[in-house]
Amino acid sequence: MRISTANAYNASVDTLLRRQRDMSESQVQLTSGKRLARASDDPASAAHAERALASATRVDASQRGVQTSQVLMTQSEGALTDAGDLLQRARELMIAAGNAVHSDKERLTSANELRSIREQLFVVANRTDGGRGYLFGGQGSSTPPFLDTPTGVQFRGTAGQAVAADGERLPLSLDGQDVWMQTRSGNGVFETRANVSAGDAWIDSGNVTNPSLVTASTYTINFSGAPGALTYSILKDGAGTAQTNVPFTPTASGTFIEIDGIAANIKGPPAAGDQFEMRPSAPTVSIFDAMDKAVADLSLPALRTSTRAQLNGDSLTNIDAALSRVTAARAHVGNALNQIDSTGTRLASQKLQAVSERSNAEDLDMVSAISDFQNKQSGYEAALKSYAMVQKLSLFNYVNA
Fold first, then answer.
1. Percent of residues in the chain assigned helix, strand, coil, to nearest 5
2. Distance, CA of 268 to CA of 119 (rounded, Å)
3. What residues pair up with 171 in beta bridges, in sequence order?
4. Which domain holds residue 152?
5. Most C-beta atoms within 10 A of its C-beta, which of 15, 78, 249, 345?
């Protein structure tokens, strides 16, 4: 086999260039910290890294939704806390106004404060989220969701609740109609009314004595007879019951009348012809209407003691129901915040896993890479020395010598 000077020279140059290219690629990997500069370097690892990147990107989008939901629900909790504090103050005013020693002037002062509280509640209900939305706008509202009209406050938003677009279903707003306009009347199970009260009696909000016996019927309590010999009869949806012409004896603490698992206390002496009612509760009470009624009732002068007690008792019951509704909404927001925290923790774990998988697929092992670079550098230096020696093996060098 003939080995010419030109062949030896070309072989040395090829080796030198290859070693230089390998060293250059290793140097690029060390600089970037990446094992894969192109998908062709390792197609399988590149595909795995791409899948991990897509997963991390999806998690990033979900995390942005979580952060937005957390901010909005925190703001909503603050708004509900403010509403609860205002309603608690309204409740205190109603309890004080029920005191028999209060004068009409003092009740009017309380009514003015209640009117101010009502205005503050309206501002809370229309509170913005710091952007272009409203905390109680439901599924969306470009204008304040609550409108104060001469006939009362109206909800102009879209009923429902806006949620994050991804699969987490995290809330971005609250249903203002549900929170502010659909408080259950009475004690939440049934409500009491004084249909006719010519005497000095009034009925309280009642309570449930046996939930298993409660029906969806309306009960009417009719009083008849002469003073000192009064009796009452209870009608169920207009039909007679076993409680017919039952003797009624008023006491200082009131007299409980019970039927089908519900009971109410009638205080004071009724008159023949008086009629009281117990009907199923319904989500029909607006918090603003309850406040308006309380203001109007406290502004009425020179009322009988029983009438004042009945009006104050009804308003206090409505305010208590409104406070319970706000408290329930706040609890719902608290549960949502717990869900948001759990979701955030889970998404953080998913992102860490995706980042780790991508790193394992494309990142460089620096210790191995440095060792490899040093080996390639040594190979390049050896090739360079070999090339220099080949250059000196020309026949002309001997002729010239």
1. 55, 15, 30
2. 36
3. 163
4. 34-185+283-363
5. 15
pLDDT tops 70 at residue 392: no
> Which H or E run includes 360?
helix 305-362
φ, ψ dihedrals at 175, nearest 5°? -80, 100
Q: Are residues 179 and 248 in the same domain?
A: no
Tokens 């102009």, residue located: 156
Number of helices followed by number of strands (H, E) in the chain = 8, 12
On average, the pLDDT of the chain sits at: 84
The amino acid present at 69, given as its one-letter code, is S
For residues 212 and 277, state if they share a domain. yes
DSSP lists the bridge partners of residue 280 as 190
Q: In this structure, what token pair is assigned to residue 109?
A: 């002062």
- 108-138: buried (b, 16+ CB within 10 Å) or exposed (e) per residue? eebbeebbebbeebbebbbbebeeebbbbbb
Tell me how far apart the alpha carbons of residues 173 and 142 are, in angstroms, rounded to a whole number: 13
Distance CA 359, CA 130 (A): 39
Report the distance separating Cα 384 and Cα 4, nearest Å: 20
- Alpha-carbon distance of 51 to 354, in angstroms, equals 9
Would residue 175 be called left, alpha or beta, if left means φ above 0 and alpha means ψ between -120 and 50 degrees?
beta
Name the residue with tokens 């897509």: 54
Asked whether residue 261 falls in the same domain as residue 332, the answer is: no
Reduce the secondary structure of 112-130 to three states and give it as a string: HHHHHHHHHHHHHHCCECC
Query: 153 - beta bridge partners?
Result: 148
Instruction: Find, among 249, 257, 270, 256, the residue nearest to 202 by Cα.
Output: 270
The count of other CB atoms within 10 Å of the CB of residue 240 is: 10
Phi, psi dihedrals of residue 188, rounded to the nearest 5°: 100, -20
User: What's phi and psi for 140, nearest 5 deg?
Assistant: 145, 140
Tokens representing residue 275 in the block: 């009629």
Ranges of beta strands (E only) in 81-197 are 146-149, 152-155, 190-196
Residue 4 lies in a domain: no
Crossing angle for the helix pair 104-125 and 287-298, to the nearest 10 degrees: 160
Tell me: the pLDDT tens digits for 168-218?
A: 678 889 999 999 999 999 999 999 999 998 889 999 999 999 999 999 999
In the DSSP assignment, the letter for residue 173 is S
Alpha-carbon gap, residue 272 to 231, rounded angstroms: 9
